[in-house]
User: Which sequence fits this backbone?
């Protein structure tokens, strides 16, 4: 199948040929004709499948066709909602690349950055707007955003959007757009709550699924290390020194964990960048740039900060802390072995994570390779209960202090 057969015009085909795309990916093949046919869609596809172009290209095509009629109007015609700033920026970069031989105007707005330049851009007029929910509603309230002419609404990474608590914002945004709009919902997984959201918002959507459960399993060598929590850092350094080379992503559960590991690796002479929700927008972007350019070959991240970000050519993924959701494990290791290349993943399992690894292996349908190493976990080790001296935080009950200061942990 070629992009010509997908009925994309010359300007778009020229741009994607320059980007090096020869044939559409599976999700593009399935999605593009239906979007052009003005259908509502629920698409289950992970980052790395080419899902951004799967909605960006037909949106550009549809708007391109109507361009003369709506010339230089100020109203937004396509709106893409993204849960994270990094993903929003990346989506807009894609739109910019594909639309470079058209006159369509794209812009991105997100929180954590100065609002004034965003107002200026909106004032000049935008055809396609990519936004995070909070900043969009803020600018709408201040009357810089007019959604009354939106023809296509895209909800990207809908599962993450719900995990991050954006459900009310998303519903509000959908209501601000005309009821006749076409709606496309993209999600790496479709749990019940995403299905529910799709049922309330979309109009008889067609479902597309391009996420086979173990899609990543065959090209990624996945190994498992049973290791005491206190020895994880030593194991990590041992592997970096002796076994893992190239560009590496290390996942941690908490922001604190990311910072701590970053310090340790920097002290050991490694070139490290890191991503988590407490870092300012400019620092997060710089970290991504450094990693992409290989100025830093190790990126340490929490799931939310790294989700949806397109980072190619990762040689290995270390699950320094195991995720408690098996799908997250698959997302994480899916960062490596892109586009038919091989990759490696290393899972560190401490005593209190044994249930996680059990569920992950059940989900995958096979056992990971257990690797012997210098710091084995005592097989009889009991899950540890962490109780700091003098800590207000007791197991199973939140202190008043923790309730009051409900900080995001990712
Ligand atoms: P995404 O899933 O949208 O994050 O895309 C993953 C990567 O695939 C990005 O680097 C895209 O530039 C690339 N890509 C998207 N479509 C194609 C295609 N048809 N051929 C080759 N690469 C593509």
Assistant:
């Amino acid at each position: 199948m070629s992009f010509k057969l997908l009925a994309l015009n010359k300007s778009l085909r020229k741009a994607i040929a320059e980007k090096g795309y020869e044939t559409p990916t599976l999700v593009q093949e399935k999605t593009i004709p239906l979007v052009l046919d003005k259908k509502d869609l629920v698409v289950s596809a992970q980052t790395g499948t080419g899902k951004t172009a799967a909605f960006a290209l037909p949106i550009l095509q549809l708007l391109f066709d109507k361009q003369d009629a709506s010339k230089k109007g100020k109203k937004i015609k396509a709106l893409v909602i993204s849960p994270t700033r990094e993903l929003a920026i990346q989506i807009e970069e894609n739109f910019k690349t594909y639309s470079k031989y058209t006159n369509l105007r794209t812009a991105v707005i997100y929180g954590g950055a100065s609002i004034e330049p965003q107002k200026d851009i909106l004032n000049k007029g935008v055809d396609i707007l990519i936004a995070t929910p909070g900043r969009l509603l803020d600018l709408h309230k201040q009357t810089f955003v007019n959604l009354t002419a939106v023809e296509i609404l895209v909800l990207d990474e809908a599962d993450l959007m719900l995990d991050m608590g954006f459900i009310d914002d998303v519903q509000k945004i959908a209501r601000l757009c005309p009821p006749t709009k076409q709606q496309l919902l993209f999600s790496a997984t479709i749990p019940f709550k995403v299905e529910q959201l799709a049922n309330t918002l979309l109009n008889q959507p067609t479902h597309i699924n391009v996420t086979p459960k173990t899609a990543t399993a065959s090209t990624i060598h996945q190994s498992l290390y049973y290791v005491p929590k206190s020895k994880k850092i030593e194991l990590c350094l041992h592997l970096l020194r002796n076994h893992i080379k190239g560009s590496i992503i290390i996942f941690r559960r908490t922001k604190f964990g990311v910072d701590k590991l970053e310090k340790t690796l920097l002290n050991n002479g490694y070139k490290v960048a890191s991503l988590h929700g407490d870092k300012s927008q400019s620092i997060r972007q710089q970290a991504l740039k450094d990693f992409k350019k290989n100025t830093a070959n190790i990126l340490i991240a929490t799931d939310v900060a790294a989700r949806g970000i397109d980072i190619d050519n990762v040689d290995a993924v270390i699950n320094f802390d195991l995720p408690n959701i098996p799908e997250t494990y698959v997302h994480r290791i899916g960062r490596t072995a892109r586009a038919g290349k091989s990759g490696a993943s290393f899972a560190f399992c401490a005593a209190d994570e044994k249930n996680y690894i059990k569920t992950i292996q059940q989900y995958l349908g096979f056992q990971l390779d257990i690797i012997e190493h210098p710091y084995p976990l005592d097989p009889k080790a009991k899950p540890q209960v962490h109780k700091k001296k003098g800590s207000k935080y007791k197991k199973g009950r939140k202190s008043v202090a923790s309730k009051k200061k409900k900080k995001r942990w990712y």
In short: The longest strand covers residues 220-226. The CA atoms of residues 247 and 297 lie 5 Å apart. Residues 51-65 form the longest helix (15 residues). The chain has 16 helices and 14 strands.
